[in-house]
Design brief:
- The protein is mostly beta strands and 243 residues long.
- It has a 15-stranded mixed β-sheet that branches.
- 11% of the residues lie in helices and 36% in strands.
Length: 243
């Protein structure tokens, strides 16, 4: 597991990433057939500017997130005009925070929602996180840190960890390329959690995400390894990881 520091200055420019549809492409490392796609959340109507994330959404369950439309007039007096850029691919993005501020383990996360349904669709019940767009909301205090932790089917503790520190001020979304920035591929994941906090007390700070680029893998052979992983996912969904 690697933990890598990355410092971001205010208003660092980024470009949106393209929508991918690589159906039937073979992964160079595993040789398995893979499907890569970018979740943009624009297909969900955000009534009055904000709405819960459907579950499942593209095989995933999102906790402590909502879909929001930054440009919706209903949010004009709620979010800063400097956060209109959260929706890298307009109109929608995700807004996240710890759901229960009194419980530091209540992270914003996305995980495999139903391993059985993935198996029925011929997919292994895990995914690779390739990239995403992220930024803190409003003007964060100095030293606000956004931390990503990835959990595989093999362990209860985080297998991957990476964080980025933001200076005070308004920011543009940062395109995070997981393998390039952390030095390792975030693969065979069943869950990723994200926190944004600041200060000695690690106080919660809201953040937004968009354009999650993920990769899923088609099952081959008799699928036994997929079934074993599915059981692990079911166990983890019931008990949660150990923080």
């Amino acid at each position: 597991m690697k933990s890598v520091l990355f410092l971001v200055a205010a208003c660092a420019s980024t470009l949106p990433i393209p929508l991918l549809a690589l159906h039937g492409a073979a992964d160079a490392q595993t040789g398995k057939m893979s499907n890569a796609s970018t979740l943009r959340f624009d297909d969900v109507p955000a009534l009055n500017g904000i709405t819960p994330v459907p579950s499942p959404y593209s095989y995933l369950q999102f906790s402590s997130y909502n879909i929001f439309a930054p440009h919706d007039p209903a949010l004009s007096d709620i979010i800063s005009e400097n956060d209109l850029n959260c929706a890298v691919s307009a109109p929608n993005a995700l807004i996240g925070s710890r759901g229960n501020h009194a419980n530091s383990s209540d992270m914003a996360s996305f995980r495999v929602a139903n391993a059985s349904s993935m198996a029925e669709d011929g997919l292994y019940p895990y995914f690779t996180l390739l990239s995403l767009q992220v930024k803190p909301m409003d003007a964060p205090p100095p030293g606000t840190t956004i931390t990503f932790k990835g959990y595989s089917h093999e362990h209860d503790d985080a297998d991957f960890q990476w964080h980025v520190d933001f200076i005070s001020g308004y920011h543009l979304p940062l395109l995070v390329k997981m393998q390039e920035f952390s030095g390792e591929a975030w693969d065979k994941l069943i869950m990723v959690d994200v926190t944004a906090d600041f200060g000695k007390g690690a106080l919660d700070w809201e953040f937004c995400l968009d354009d999650l680029e993920l990769q899923f893998f088609e099952k081959s052979g008799d699928g036994r390894d997929g079934l074993l992983i599915a059981q692990k996912v079911l166990d983890m969904n019931g008990q949660g990881p150990k923080y």
